[in-house]
Amino acid sequence: MKTVKYGLSALGLAIGMAATGVSMSVSAAEPTLAEADYEKAKLQYFQRCAGCHGTLRKGATGKNLEPKSTMKKGQKRLEKIIALGTEGGMNNFDDLFTKKEIANMATFIQMEPPVPPEMSLEQMRSHTKEYVAPKDYPTKPMHGLNWKNFFVVIERDAGTAAIIDGDTKKIITHIDTGYAVHVIKGTEHHKVDHAKDVGRFWYTIGRDGKVNKIDLWQTPDKMLVAETKMAYDARDIAVSGDGKYVIAGGYWPAHFVIMDAVTLNPLKVVSTRGYNTKGEFINEARVAAIYTSPLTSSFIVAVKETGQMLQVDYTDLENLTITSIASSEFLHDGFFDPSGRYFQIAANASNQMVVVDTVERKLEAIIDVESLPHPGPGANWIDKKCGPVGGTTHLGMGLVSVWGNDPIGHPAEAWKLCYEVETDGAGAFIRTHETSQYVWADQLKHPEPEVQQSVQVFDKDTHEIVKTIRVTTEPGKAALHMEFNNDGSEVWVSVWNRKDAKNPTGEIVVYDAKTLKELHRIKGLTTPTGKFNVHNRMNHKT
Amino acid sequence: MKTVKYGLSALGLAIGMAATGVSMSVSAAEPTLAEADYEKAKLQYFQRCAGCHGTLRKGATGKNLEPKSTMKKGQKRLEKIIALGTEGGMNNFDDLFTKKEIANMATFIQMEPPVPPEMSLEQMRSHTKEYVAPKDYPTKPMHGLNWKNFFVVIERDAGTAAIIDGDTKKIITHIDTGYAVHVIKGTEHHKVDHAKDVGRFWYTIGRDGKVNKIDLWQTPDKMLVAETKMAYDARDIAVSGDGKYVIAGGYWPAHFVIMDAVTLNPLKVVSTRGYNTKGEFINEARVAAIYTSPLTSSFIVAVKETGQMLQVDYTDLENLTITSIASSEFLHDGFFDPSGRYFQIAANASNQMVVVDTVERKLEAIIDVESLPHPGPGANWIDKKCGPVGGTTHLGMGLVSVWGNDPIGHPAEAWKLCYEVETDGAGAFIRTHETSQYVWADQLKHPEPEVQQSVQVFDKDTHEIVKTIRVTTEPGKAALHMEFNNDGSEVWVSVWNRKDAKNPTGEIVVYDAKTLKELHRIKGLTTPTGKFNVHNRMNHKT
Known about the structure:
Strand content of chain A: 35-45%
Largest interface: A-B, 67 and 67 residues
Oligomer: homodimer
Largest sheet of chain A: 5 strands, antiparallel
Structural class of chain A: mainly beta
EC number (chains A, B): 1.7.2.1
Number of strands of chain A: 37
Shape of chain A: globular
Radius of gyration of chain A: 23 Å
Strand order of the largest sheet of chain A: 3-10-9-8-7
Distance between the termini of chain A: 52 Å
Keywords (chains A, B): Heme, Iron, Metal-binding, Oxidoreductase, Signal
InterPro entries (chains A, B): Cyt_c-like_dom (IPR009056), Cyt_c-like_dom_sf (IPR036909), Cyt_cd1_C_sf (IPR003143), Haem_d1_sf (IPR011048), Host-pathogen_enzymatic-act (IPR051200)
Number of helices of chain A: 7
CATH architecture of the domain at 29-108 in chain A: Orthogonal Bundle
Pfam families (chains A, B): Cytochrom_D1, Cytochrome_CBB3
Mean pLDDT of chain A: 92
CATH class of the domain at 29-108 in chain A: Mainly Alpha
CATH topology of the domain at 29-108 in chain A: Cytochrome Bc1 Complex, Chain D, domain 2
Protein name (chains A, B): Nitrite reductase
CATH superfamily of the domain at 29-108 in chain A: Cytochrome c-like domain
């Protein structure tokens, strides 16, 4: 450890700072930014870069961007990478940032990363708001609509969630949420615990850590009933099987918070900082995914940088039992098998799918797949040869990998690759439905518009792609994320107006799940991304 | 959060640095030290101050010593406090530090605390050493001595452990250990798991994080058989009931490490950084005490600053289950009741004893006691009125508090104060034996030599002090820590040569447990503190 030298008369002084030490170097060529430029670059870094590279820039899905790495590349090379992207998966930002912003960002990432503050339970509680008092919650739906076929849709850059009636395709309301909601979850039918009014309440988590509670029984103007904030940066949320608790996970601070599901009042905060599977301490140990185990009274919390899957028992918060299941780095997103026993999650930097047995609370299997698996909501179905299977898309290549996931009925096929389907481009989301013959995969990560704007559909029996569907042809738009309606007769695909993200020029395109023909376009949405059909999410099968 | 300003031409520049933020201030009156003085003060702070005030100086048993607190007091007042101590429990250091060292320390604590580095599992493993190969371990004791009546004695400032034959009172050997060993533990008879050769192997933990393994069956020159290092600063250690694992807890880094008990190779490291019971994040969340649960296959890890008692299941390290039992700050040291079900631990800054039920893995009770309870090894016995009881001394006053600890047989008395015994001075250690009529308490913390050099003995039935024993009259020496021999016929008390700590001028005084008369003085020991009788520690009853 280098200690601090005092009394320096410093010209162009750089303060080297990490959570674990202080260093100082003096140089005439240190990067500097005016304060306003620094603050703007810091905000843009948080909004656009921290997700992949980390707030402390240690790297995760993206590369390490600490000065020790970036200073070697230098200003010009960094500007070029930020503007044009790389083949390694870095996006281009020349359509999002100005030239000056790109230059400032290149400078900013050569400076030591500022460490954001902590957030105490008391600070979180100061954000808790009640919009509708629980005693005033209606006892039955206050509208005549078929709410179990509602879709709750993230409008990412608007900071809203749209509620869309799946029967009429009408947008019922846009609800103010946190910035760039990442996931929305409601209660599901649970095998052990039984929540009241399953599917009625939905919980959003914004990238700014804001949590909102939505009541689908309310009249549209009153659907937002409560709010809190549990972090400065967050990604995922879940509701306990008994409907009593909401849990959300922070990117920063690295922790998860259990809240009262009625009031959203934060009750318990647990740090996820700790050691990775190699025994190295990770300060920025971010919560990547949180799910509720359908067969046990526990949450599954995936910690990205440490490769630890935490199974958190929610039956006693004051004497909180957590099983820390060591798996692989970096954990990202996952989904349960249809039985609800096995949680299948991408360890995308390891090119693996990790499987956890939530009944035995232990690692079940690790499946080697290809470049950067990313299943999004995931897909489970029955294969003629392998029996029950699960599948994932990949961020790094156009490929769907399919593995057996029924160790009891089909032990020989379980947790082994069954087959792969090549698609035209790398994607982020895969989806199917128990009534469907098809599996859908998007190609969001492909750089060419005609591929990025198309989704591909393959047959569960022949494993052949039966149709490539160009969802949009408009410049600056991408097709992503599929969701079936309640009876599996329709598939909804988002058209994300990435370029014109401030305006409601995005849309959802609805397809006939059998004929694969377009049925409808739902317009007036701002950057629609994830969509959650109430009935399908209440009854996890696929 | 304040961000970093660059390009400052600074005179007397101070770098404000914590694990969670960066601040910078410029002033003409900033404290400065020459580099050599800074390094010496840093080392002395670590050795003498960090235990109570914390490496990051946030305060624990001692006060907060961050610049925001110390700058207000100023150089002269700080020097006086360091030299003379305070009535609040701060020791005087005018007999340990020179005037210059006191001045430098007063300056050092007005400067921002340097943050020590992390330690990875790989770094720990690089310290693992084998002095005797496990295949060469003897299959029976290699000496004709009654090893079950050995005393393993910490020689604090010598960095050694003395092995003393309790039958002959002869020092068999001095074994090189880490700096200032805090605790030494061996395997105990366990109700569920059964180690081989119980009582044979002993494990030391140094304040420098060094772990040593001692084999009492070896010839004296070969008793040190293995070594490793698991932290830069550490306090406690334990062995699993099956004898397979050793666990040690770090003050810095704040973590615990589970090692292979045969080789001492570190297997698993778990961070204890996290939130206190108020929901505030604590970076320096130090492991204060570690014990093995006699009735379950688990360790008890007490985290000082967070007030969390971690019950760590050692049956599956890769899928590690921990129950985090929220109690009170700041946890310090504790002991089991005679049944082995309840762990009784001091939360000394809260003036409470916390009781954990290790079978139900939950908080059992909190008992309000007086100023800064500190039981050391603790004492359990039978009271005529209250039935089974436990007792503690207090660092803050001359008082032994006694509470019922048998909730099944004596529910009305359980976890309530039964009675209190006033002693002449504040102490750190209490001890008794199942065969003894008496309970012994030291008075180590009293400032006056005649009290500090005396221990007091009270009767289990009358609750009256029956004798005050002046253990030594030599200047600069203190009496502390009692241990009974194997059959309870003797009590051994340490005489700590605090002033002349570099030389073997300390001693252990042996008393007849019935007549309370002096029997023997064991000389030639350097700063003897804790003593561990093999038989008594193998068979925890009192």
